[in-house]
Design a protein that fits this description.
The chain is mainly alpha-helical and about 130 residues long. The protein has six helices and two strands; from the N terminus they run αββααααα. It has one domain (about 1-130). Helix content is about 75%, strand content about 5%. Strand 1 (about 20) and strand 2 form a beta hairpin. It starts with a helix and ends with a helix.
Length: about 130
């Protein structure tokens, strides 16, 4: 079963590297946390500078509308969503481990192999570029 975990992480590490042109780390939490922190701090500084440049009524709306086009905001959203998935996976994994013991590893392994096969047929960078 430990070999299946290593296989699942290897498949995940090789398959999911770039999403919408943004580099993501999906097999270790600290890399995603660093990327989220960097993007969030860049956005905060950008937001403050835009807030001070713009004046008048509706400036919050204008600044927020402009921020939706920024790569740092997309990266922040992507890594934030990834963190939410980590949290959900850890929670579900803890409950599944109590109920199914080591057999609970099979579902994520099957899912990652399916994603890997789909990614080989249609690369994720093409899919992400169409959606963003």
């Amino acid at each position: 079963m430990v070999a299946l975990l290593a296989l699942a992480m290897g498949v995940q590490n090789v398959t999911i590297r770039n999403v919408a042109g943004l580099h993501v780390y999906t097999t270790f939490i600290t890399g995603s946390l660093v990327l989220f922190g960097e993007s969030a701090s860049q956005y905060i500084f950008w937001f403050i500078s835009q807030w001070h440049r713009d004046a008048g009524r509706g400036r919050l709306t204008r600044v927020l509308r402009a921020s939706s086009r920024l790569a740092m905001v997309r990266h922040m959203a992507l890594t934030g969503a990834l963190w939410s998935c980590y949290l959900a996976g850890a929670t579900v994994g803890a409950f599944a481990n109590d109920r199914f013991q080591t057999r609970c590893v099979l579902a994520p392994l099957i899912l990652l192999v399916a994603i890997g096969i789909y990614g080989a047929v249609r690369p994720f960078s093409e899919i992400a570029a169409e959606e963003w």
